[in-house]
């Protein structure tokens, strides 16, 4: 990493807190920006951009929702109607990201748009091969729209307990090659790699120039240093491949239910502790 990396955190980590409250807290913790949830039913780009800018931050990336307008978002679903609806959602998500970028031109940051299968669907409904082929074709459609808008799309590599396609860097590198678009890159997450990769640093090297976004949480999905992940090795690999994208924290408070970031009255305090510790550690090394 040849320049100071932008450091952000996912807004979903804070549960039902307002974006105003989230950005206030992240600014106080020394972050540069946010990864914004793509809840297009409730979030408007103009309002979100203004709130983030008012707190001296930027929207660094946008992550997709699993439901939109009460309908499933699943680009790999065997039902063509579901896939078509999902491609339509991603089209609107790209428009959302483009407007965010326009409204925060003063920051010089154009948000990266995340893409993945439906979180929680861990097996094929049809056959894995058919769903993978459908996923490739759907992502091609989204990628063409992203390319025409000058936006970058990243395929997020999720672990097997959250997804059934693209669970490793090797699988995703091949998938991106098949999509065949220069608008598509890869998002690697230290937590997911801890589960799926024999050598996360090697996975980073394999993704190489296609690695455009990096998510951070320790092996137990807490802050850096509270698990067993070798982050020094991963940062060395990031430097080796000249990674220049944002670094996004995605740790959660301790306790059950991994899909609910805020679990009790003490969760926000724990979360802020993890974020502060991690920001200090990363700032000293990025």
Count of spatially separate domains: 1
**Overall SS class:** alpha/beta
| Unreliable parts | none
* CATH homology group: Divalent-metal-dependent TIM barrel enzymes
**Gap between N and C termini:** 7 Å
CATH class: Alpha Beta
CATH topology: TIM Barrel
Q: Using DSSP, what is the number of strands?
A: 10
User: Helix count?
Assistant: 9
**SSE arrangement, N to C:** EHEHEEEHEHEHEHHEHEH
Strand order of the largest sheet: 1-2-3-6-7-8-9-10
Task: From the alpha carbons, calculate the radius of gyration and give it in angstroms.
Answer: 18 Å
> Average pLDDT value?
96
Estimated share of beta-strand residues: 15-25%
What does this structure look like?
The protein has 286 residues and is an alpha/beta fold. It has one domain (7-283): Divalent-metal-dependent TIM barrel enzymes (TIM Barrel), CATH 3.20.20. The protein is built from nine helices and ten strands. It has helices spanning 19-28, 45-54, 80-103, 128-149, 169-179, 190-196, 200-207, 231-240, 267-283, and strands at residues 7-10, 33-38, 58-64, 67-68, 71-72, 112-115, 153-156, 184-189, 211-216, 247-249. β2, α2 (45-54) and β3 form a beta-alpha-beta unit. α3 runs parallel beside α4 (128-149), α4 (128-149) crosses α5 (169-179) and α7 runs parallel beside α8 (231-240). The mean pLDDT is 96.
Tell me the layout of helices and strands.
Layout: E1 7-10, H1 19-28, E2 33-38, H2 45-54, E3 58-64, E4 67-68, E5 71-72, H3 80-103, E6 112-115, H4 128-149, E7 153-156, H5 169-179, E8 184-189, H6 190-196, H7 200-207, E9 211-216, H8 231-240, E10 247-249, H9 267-283
Parallel strand pairs: 1-2, 1-10, 2-3, 3-6, 6-7, 7-8, 8-9, 9-10
Antiparallel strand pairs: 4-5
Helix pairs in contact: 2-3, 3-4, 4-5, 5-7, 7-8
